UniProtKB/TrEMBL annotation:
Protein name: Regulatory protein VirG
UniProt keyword annotation of Transcription present: yes
DNA-binding region: 140-240
InterPro entries: CheY-like_superfamily, OmpR/PhoB-type_DNA-bd, Sig_transdc_resp-reg_C-effctor, Sig_transdc_resp-reg_receiver, WalR-like, WH-like_DNA-bd_sf
Keyword field contains Transcription regulation: yes
PANTHER family: DNA-BINDING DUAL TRANSCRIPTIONAL REGULATOR OMPR, REGULATOR OF RPOS
Source superkingdom: Bacteria
């Protein structure tokens, strides 16, 4: 299934909520609409697929525990064909499930019971980051490193063979932050501040999982990475020379 992902900041953002609990769905939909967003709620994977065939969405709020195909499977399937931001919503509160959700491509993870304002803040943050980097005023020109090209405006990563590489919102933001600070040791807290990538769980574990996923996409040898070096007791450092295109 091809997932249509709108990223036009000048339009009202449209949110798809996949949640089978009617009370929670009604509460979230009301909150989204009160904040000026368009919102559609469905209760299963099949209904989600049908909704996405009819219209495009800017973000998906996805419950992990659904009848039939569960949220983790849906997340993996969505991420295979789209960079649409995904917020996992679940009653499972342990660290392993948070990490699994991120590893499958979720951009953020909210545990039930949750405060509506917290969920709204995370949704707004992801929408800002997905809007062609509009909230990143510095270094908007494309950059090149070791044959790769990253474009902050179009939010595209192109490998040395000229092929577009699919990335989640958080993965792209982390790589962009590293490219904007080559040769500098970036702590996990700094990366969190620049990208909000640690919202889904503990700062250290969330950043580390995203870094691992970025390495899988750009490093020749993930076990001995040459682009993103781990600095013991420090954080991470981006080693290639970065130049503006």
């Amino acid at each position: 299934m091809t997932v249509h992902h709108r990223v036009a900041p000048e339009t009202v953002s449209r949110i798809l909520l996949v949640e089978d609990d009617g009370e929670i769905a009604a509460m979230v939909i009301e909150m989204l609409r009160e904040n000026g967003l368009e919102a559609v709620a469905v209760g299963s994977a099949a209904n989600m697929d049908a909704a996405m065939r009819k219209q495009s969405f800017d973000l998906v709020v996805l419950d992990a525990m659904l009848p039939g195909e569960d949220g983790f499977s849906i997340c993996r399937r969505l991420r295979a064909s789209s960079t649409i931001p995904i917020v996992m919503l679940t009653a499972l509160g342990d660290e392993i499930n948070r990490i699994v959700g991120i590893e499958l491509g979720a951009d953020d993870y909210v545990t039930k019971p949750f405060h509506p304002r917290e969920l709204m803040a995370r949704i707004k943050s992801l929408l800002r980051r997905a809007s062609y980097g509009a909230d990143q005023p510095l270094r908007q020109t494309p950059m090149r490193f070791a044959g790769w090209q990253i474009d902050p405006i179009l939010r595209q990563l192109i490998n040395p063979e000229g092929v577009h590489v699919s990335m989640t919102t958080a993965e792209f933001d982390i790589l962009l932050a590293l490219c904007q600070n080559p040769g500098r040791v970036m702590t996990r807290e700094q990366l969190l501040r620049l990208t909000h990538a640690g919202l889904a769980g503990s700062v250290e574990r969330s950043i580390d999982v995203h870094i691992s996923r970025v390495r899988q996409k750009i490093e020749q040898n993930v076990r001995e990475p040459s682009f993103i070096k781990t600095v013991r007791l420090g954080g991470y450092m981006f080693t290639p020379e970065v130049e503006s295109c």
